[in-house]
Amino acid sequence: PSRTFHGNNRLLTSQIISHYESISHGQKEMPEHFNFASDVLDKWTQLEKAGRKPANPAFWWVNDKGEEVKWSFEELGSLSRKTANVLSEACGLQRGDRIVAILPRVPEWWLLNVACMRAGIVLFPGTSQLTAKDILYRLQASKAKCIVTNDTLAPAVESVLSDSQFLKSKLIVGQGSRDGWLNFKELL
């Protein structure tokens, strides 16, 4: 089965299914290490560049006001590498470290997901409806070294900081600055 995406026929669904079927039937070896960011996104970037795959958006986000963000596979790969650098350099995170992300589903939420996969950082997503008590519980249970949130939820995070002994860095996704917080957009 194929699907159409803006006029381009893509056989990705059938290709993915046949790839996994060949692994389950022992015709291909299961990879010892798998990283979605490098093994899928970067591979699709190469196929697009080589003209072996039609150029389709890897990411297409539209908000309720009709504003769009559209990234190609190459752009998503580049932005996720930059985000991984922000997490490792500015936030001091390493492979295996944990991060709590409490954001609405804005483009940065997806960048964080892919960047964490790329860098081997464990992501704990949280809904933007969490209370301060919920946030504290997640920080303590996960032993997160970093939290990412927006301007709206930053005060709730700040109210529980004294009880968050593992937290080393705070990253804010927003336009303004906030004392003691790193600004994601500026660092990116």
Question: Can you summarize this structure?
Answer:
The chain has 188 residues and is α/β, with parallel strands linked by helices. The protein is 41% helix and 19% strand.
Question: Please, could you describe this protein's structure?
Answer:
This is medium-chain acyl-CoA ligase. There is one protein chain. With 188 residues, the chain is an alpha/beta fold. The chain has a domain at 59-183: Rossmann fold. It is 41% helix and 19% strand. The strands form three sheets. It has a five-stranded parallel β-sheet with strand order 6-5-7-8-9, sandwiched between helices. Helix 6 (154-158) links the parallel strand 7 (146-150) and strand 8 (169-173). Helix 3 packs across helix 4 (107-119). The protein is globular, with a radius of gyration of 19 Å. The relative contact order is 0.11.
